[in-house]
Amino acid sequence: MLKTKDTNSTIQTILKCIVIFMFLTNTVTAQKKTQFRLYYFGQYPSKGSNRFSFAGGVHYQPETEWFRTEFRTSKVFFLSNKWDLVVSQRTNLLWQYGEFTNIEIRPIQYFTYHHLFLPRFKLDHRLMLEERFFANVKHDNEFHARFRYRLDGRIPMNNLLFMHGKFYMRPMSEVYINFGNSAYNPYVSQWKNTLAIGHLINNRLTLEFRYEKSKNWFSNRAPSVDMDVIRFQFVQKLKK
Length: 240
What we know:
Elements: H1 2-25, E1 32-44, E2 50-61, E3 66-78, E4 83-96, E5 99-118, E6 121-136, E7 142-156, E8 167-179, E9 188-200, E10 205-216, E11 225-237
Parallel strand pairs: 1-11
Antiparallel strand pairs: 1-2, 2-3, 3-4, 4-5, 5-6, 6-7, 7-8, 8-9, 9-10, 10-11
């Protein structure tokens, strides 16, 4: 009975957090779009000094019949108990209104710094550099580069530790800065705020739901566009 009561209390807390976050971030703008995203991440090995991971994802934006598939591979180097270095490659294939539009090749490099802000609050700082190469079907190829900084928190919701069978909350905030001669906007191009609820199903599988709210600037002269993203992701640690 006590376990059922604790579970119901946790679910109610999750729903309240989602509702409050959506209310606080839901501003009225001239333009607004919604995306749905589904991801799978596989990590191998689950233990060791380094780690290889791969991922696949699909993105859909119904307002503009925009559809994108994503494939990525990453190599994680654990430099110390606080610093990680990740070298990654991401490939995107994009369709719009039923037509193939472009392919993007995106090399990625980033550092992550980990520390405990409070006894129950894990806090990460991620510093990322992206080089984006676009092969377009109907117009010239493009190259964009951008820097990203993300502040990423993680809080256990019904236990002092991150254990399997437990829930956690993950608030995040990230800013995107374009640079280079071919960047479509030389200043901040995106500011994204996220609230995620995760469930450690077991010691190898994690399910995470994210609600992302971002403000996007595609041109210095055009108005900003608000984007809502509903994202589900599965993270699996694979055996050696």
